[in-house]
Design brief:
Elements (H helix, E strand, L loop, with lengths): L1 H19 L5 H9 L3 H37 L3 H28 L5 H24 L1
Helix pairs in contact: 2-3, 3-4, 3-5, 4-5
Length: 135
């Protein structure tokens, strides 16, 4: 009886992850195509999260460099200071926004992937914004 319950519950638990991840999104499709359970999917998302953190850090540093140059030429540092504040606020927002989604899913097996998916999507949106501004 327990084996039968596990056999029924396992696909249901994994399929609930698919509700949160956009399977057409290349980031999530890659993890979903390679991984067959929540644990491995979550580990794959960890790798994506590390990559997106590095990319975001690059864009933030690029914007800081641009604003430092502006401050050097104009003598006004207000845009630089405001950007640093906005980045700090973004990190706080991202953390809180993804945490409530994580908490709403507890004690489900999809709570960790839900947090990571949110983190990745929110970070990617910030990267898009910073890349648009830098052009």
């Amino acid at each position: 009886m327990i084996k039968r319950l596990i056999a029924i519950a396992t696909p249901i638990l994994f399929s609930s992850t698919l509700v949160f991840a956009d399977t057409k999104d290349p980031i999530f499709a890659k993890c979903l195509s390679k991984e067959t359970n929540n644990s491995k999917y979550s580990q794959c998302l960890d790798t994506v999260k590390i990559k997106i953190d590095r990319e975001l850090e690059t864009w933030v540093n690029n914007q800081l460099f641009i604003l430092e140059e502006i401050a050097r030429t104009t003598g006004r540092k207000s845009a630089y200071d405001m950007f640093k504040r906005s980045q700090k606020n973004f990190v706080t927002f991202r953390d809180n926004n993804c945490k409530w989604q994580f908490l709403a899913e507890l004690p489900s097996n999809v709570s960790a992937p839900t947090y990571k998916e949110c983190y990745i999507l929110t970070s990617r949106d910030r990267i898009k914004e910073l890349s648009r501004i830098a052009k």
